[in-house]
Amino acid sequence: MKISLETEQFLLENTGASKLTNISLIQNVWSNYGQILRIGLLGAETTSVVVKIIQSSAHQKHPRGWNSTLGHSRKLRSYQVEHYWYQHYASRCQMAAVPQCVAQGRVEDALILVLEDLSTCGFPLRLQQLNGQQLKVCIRWLACFHATFMHQRPVGLWPIGTYWHLATRPEELKALDDKALQQAATAIDSLLNNCHYQSIVHGDAKIANFLFSKDTSQVSAVDFQYVGAGCGMKDLAYLIGSCMDENECEKKETVLLNYYFEQLQLALRPHAYEGQEIEREWRPMYRIAWADFHRFIKGWSPGHWKINSYSERITDEVVRQMNQ
Q1: How far is Cα 41 from Cα 34, in angstroms, rounded to an integer?
Q2: Domains detected in the chain
Q3: What does the pLDDT look like over 215-252, one tens digit per residue?
């Protein structure tokens, strides 16, 4: 694996390394915008770093054909937000582990983000499926993350977090065949955005963005491109929907919601009373957040596996609620 001489020099200067070794590809970035690499370091304080390289002039190649000027601008903005997040917010995450920023900058037309290598910081495992306990570890992370940033204004981040936020997805809304949901979309979006209690949400809290400790009792999260203000139920509904089938989602909904709010209460101490108020407002928002994502996925990819009877039923209930 090769990188440009300019990028190599940037990394040497910003890590204090005398030499770069073992450059390997972790993954290509969505829509052909760049790469995420693991790079070994000689003579530095740490043995390796993870480097995200984004070509700002890249021609997007969306796997589902959503190539547009609006989509391109949204993507570029997301990488700028991610840089700002790691530079100004990551160090505040004491209860919810995240990689810390080693360096960030621009080399020619590329945005370079240099992060701690979580595989050397106690989080070497990326899982494709979660058991019940592992899911709770991720839910605990979300609760701690939301508690950390409760009432915080999203300066430098997305004014409204999540990658499916309605105002950033007019093309997918237009393509939506479900007319009742299409008409209710603005009201659903408004309910979520006008919650009295707002935190900062991760915005893409799926399984692939969590890395576990060897015993899977602890977790850290990555990929903060769509971090911004929001109701925490957006993250929770998206996480649960990313790792359980429709039967499990329905069967375990109450248990998992109870666990989230238990952990939120613990993380908010000594403000226990406020935690109770947040729960009263946010718990009904869970299904509304679910319907909000369902609106996006039905417009974006009508045949997607996440479109199931549970999601359809929940969304129909929410749409009827909006009509009333």
Answers
A1: 21
A2: 5-120 (3.30.200.20), 132-323 (3.90.1200.10)
A3: 999 999 999 999 999 999 999 999 999 999 999 999 99
